[in-house]
Amino acid sequence: MATVCFEGRSVTVADGEKILACCEEMGVPFGCQDGLCGTCIVTVPKGSDNLAPRNDKEVDMDLDEGQRLACQCVIVSGEVHIVAA
Ligand code: FES
Fold first, then answer.
1. Hey, which of 60, 63, 71, 73 would you mutate to test ligand 1's pocket, going by the most ligand atoms within 8 Å of its Cβ?
2. Distance between CA 60 and CA 80 in Å, rounded?
3. For the chain, which residues make up each domain, given as ranges?
4. What are φ and ψ of residue 24, in 5° steps?
5. What is the pTM of this model?
6. Which atom of ligand 1 has the smallest separation from the CA of 32?
7. Domain 2-84: assigned CATH number
8. What are the phi and psi torsion angles at 45 (to 5°)?
């Protein structure tokens, strides 16, 4: 199992899952949920190595270092801390 932490809350998800649903549950704002709008950009100060590499939509978004699209990223295992970008 893996854990995603945001603003003092944490949610457990299965290894290899997208973090979209648990982030939505914790109050991360979403728009398109398809990697196009950038509404869900978050910064990952801790545990970024536990996320799968950026997918094509994240690469196309031209994110800053340490940023991810919460609607696109997949947690491999372990714990990941995210904050609003
Ligand atoms: S919700 Fe639009 S890019 Fe993630």
1. 71
2. 23
3. 2-84
4. -60, -40
5. 0.96
6. 2
7. 3.10.20.30
8. -75, -20
3-state secondary structure the chain: CEEEEECCEEEEECCCCECHHHHHHCCCCCCCCCCCCCCCEEEEEECHHHECCCCHHHHHCCCCCCEEECCCCEECCEEEEEEEC
- Residue pair 83/42 in contact (Cβ under 8 Å)? The answer is yes
Torsion of CA 17, 59, 36, 42, to 10 degrees: 60
pLDDT tens for 32-82 read 999 999 999 999 999 999 999 999 999 999 999 999 999 999 999 999 999
What is d(CA 78, CA 63) in angstroms, rounded to the nearest whole number?
A: 23
Whether the CB-CB separation of 42 and 28 falls below 8 Å is answered with yes
